[in-house]
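User: Could you go from structure to sequence for me? I need the amino acid at each position, not a summary. Structure tokens:
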């Protein structure tokens, strides 16, 4: 049974493993932790566990909590140093809160603090998968946050929406539920007259991205609608559904799922839509946020890639960045649109020498027998 509607996120058969992301503005209000609200949410998590569903929580709030304790300006986001200090203090309170409230329902909380590198590096990604799997098998509820006390601007997700999607990939989850301060995705800014909530989206297109707004009711969090759409794309690569719902209400999961108030993003390949679920390795590759470089290709190569072909040097028109063989790179068309991510079979200097050449010319340029492609289709995922 596949997920076809919001209510399916509460069904064990359709959604055996669910990731729930909680934003900072939901957990922390002007007067501190919204404890009564959180108690209702934890009750819903306990109910899901009682139905036989695994639940993973991705919880923001450490910086906001720590900033209040340290009395830092701008919610602890005035500088990187402030954010790191606030996170170090706030994470203790945040994890303790989740452990206390889950414990009241007989559930064990397990804290994991992760960084972008834990997902970009393949071996560390697999280690995270193994840890999550073992915790869930043991009956624990993993509570995950970005390790903001050590993360810098260059090596961080920057929002927990995309972190939740990556966690879902690593944990082989069925769905992600992003609890935010809006009901879902609207066809325009929800403050505008006539704005319409989209109940379902099948594939995040350029038109869907154009509907996004970065507005947030609180200003406390770091993610906007754009990051949520990026998370939906990342989840969809692994065949994972993603929903956006309003978490400002008490018992927000029941409100969203029982009444169908939210936006459900279905991965490509469902409900007759042409597409496919990528394998685990390709889904990991497609979700990477840091790439070492890029190859620009002509229209003929773009068409060939769409048809399932490997990338040959003949279709490469430009090489960008410094990368080595085996590094993850982007493949873009000449308009700048990213078509795919892949692992390069050559370093950047070799790609520059080979671009535009037929395969039969490669040996003469390189001085050794060439590989079959610049990026092989088995090491590539189309986006």
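Assistant: Here is the amino acid at each position, in order:
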């Amino acid at each position: 049974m596949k997920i076809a509607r919001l209510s399916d996120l509460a069904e064990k058969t359709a959604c055996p493993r669910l990731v729930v992301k909680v934003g900072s503005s939901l957990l922390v209000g002007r007067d501190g932790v919204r404890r009564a609200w959180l108690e209702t949410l934890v009750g819903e998590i306990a109910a899901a566990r009682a139905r036989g569903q695994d639940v993973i929580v991705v919880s923001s709030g450490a910086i906001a909590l720590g900033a209040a304790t340290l009395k830092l300006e701008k919610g602890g986001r005035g500088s990187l140093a402030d954010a790191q200090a606030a996170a170090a203090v706030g994470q203790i309170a945040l994890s303790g809160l989740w452990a206390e409230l889950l414990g009241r329902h007989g559930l064990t909380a397990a804290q994991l603090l992760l960084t972008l590198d834990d997902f970009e590096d393949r071996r560390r990604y697999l280690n995270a998968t193994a840890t999550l799997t073992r915790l869930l098998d043991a009956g624990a509820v993993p509570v995950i946050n970005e390790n903001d006390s050590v993360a810098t601007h260059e090596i961080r997700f920057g929002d927990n929406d995309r972190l939740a999607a990556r966690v879902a990939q690593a944990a082989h989850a069925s769905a992600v539920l992003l609890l935010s301060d809006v009901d879902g995705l609207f066809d325009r800014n929800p403050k505008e007259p006539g704005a319409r909530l989209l109940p379902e989206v099948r594939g995040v297109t350029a038109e869907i991205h154009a509907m996004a707004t970065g507005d947030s009711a609180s200003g406390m969090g770091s993610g906007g609608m754009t990051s949520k759409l990026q998370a939906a794309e990342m989840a969809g690569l692994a065949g994972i559904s993603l929903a956006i719902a309003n978490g400002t209400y008490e018992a927000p999961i029941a409100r969203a799922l029982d009444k169908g108030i939210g936006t459900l993003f279905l991965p490509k390949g469902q409900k007759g839509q042409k597409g496919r679920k990528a394998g685990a390795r390709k889904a990991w590759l497609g979700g990477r946020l840091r790439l070492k470089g890029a190859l620009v290709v002509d229209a003929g190569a773009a068409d060939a890639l769409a048809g399932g072909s490997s990338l040959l040097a003949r279709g490469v028109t430009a090489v960008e960045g410094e990368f080595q063989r085996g590094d993850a790179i982007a493949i873009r068309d000449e308009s700048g649109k990213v078509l795919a991510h892949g692992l390069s079979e050559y370093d950047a200097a070799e790609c520059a020498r080979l671009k535009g050449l037929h395969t039969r010319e490669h040996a003469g340029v390189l001085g050794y027998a060439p590989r079959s492609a610049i990026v092989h289709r088995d090491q590539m995922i189309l986006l």
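One structural detail worth keeping in mind: Residues 80-103 form the longest helix (24 residues).
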